[in-house]
Amino acid sequence: MGVVKGIKGGVDDVRTVARGWRWGRRPLVPRSAEPFVPRHQARVFETDWARRPGGQAVREVAQKGVLEPLLRSQVRRRVEGLDVLARLDGPVIFAANHASHLDTPLILLALPDEWRRRTAVAAAADYFFDTWWRAVGSAVVFNTFPIDRRGGTMATTPGEVLDDGWSLVIYPEGTRSKDGWLGRFQLGAAYLATQHQVPVVPIAHRGTFAAMPRGQGWPGRGRPQLSVRFGEPIHPLPGQSPRDLAPRIRAGVAALLDEDRTTWWDARRRHAAGETPDPSGPPAADWRRLWEQTAPLPTDPDHRPRRPWRR
Fold it and tell me: What is the CA radius of gyration of the chain?
């Protein structure tokens, strides 16, 4: 009993430090209130070392020996649709909705080991690579490489990682959702898929926003329920442009979100009829949208509402 209380007390201490610690060098003053300063040249970060044998060995220990037990201790997980990967050889682009910092560990640890070990994550250079310790830590643990959301020059491009045989996790929204609902998709994932002729595997997850939304540094108490669902691969059609492929990717993610809220059969019928509920959420007040997304997921996968939220 004393050991259990000691572990619980240690977890509570880590939570307290995570909430109060200033993790980066970003200023506390809002950017709109700061005087204008010329934009500095983005630094170039090398992350190839993290995908070499030494980096892979360290990451295996970090993910399976530390990250997975920690995640299991804080949340419950439900994974569906991994059978689609058995019909693929890789590499692929995993395109997922983005609502929390829990998304990346949830997706990576849901993958079979042979896929997880060959999957890299595209991460924002201005957030995950603004300090050396955050850059090294994310590259080691999550196999991240930086992408500049402002169009700067990086040492490694997503195309080079794909050409080396690595699958990619990409969040087409570009940033975490402010209210948990799906935002507008950028063209990055669709561009890579058409240029390198690789399939896109849509991923939809629910519960991460409720468990750890933006501004929160640790999952909420009570081991909240999360779900992650993998969909059928979306192959670029001959001559298809990124602008035409991007809506197909978003529709794939939307259908999976609908399926997770209801049933596979109902979601497939709505998808075939073009009646999938809009994943951007209802045109309601901000508090109503947040309230809807912070509702805890049922721990019983068969306990679902009869019909999804409709606009």
Answer: 20
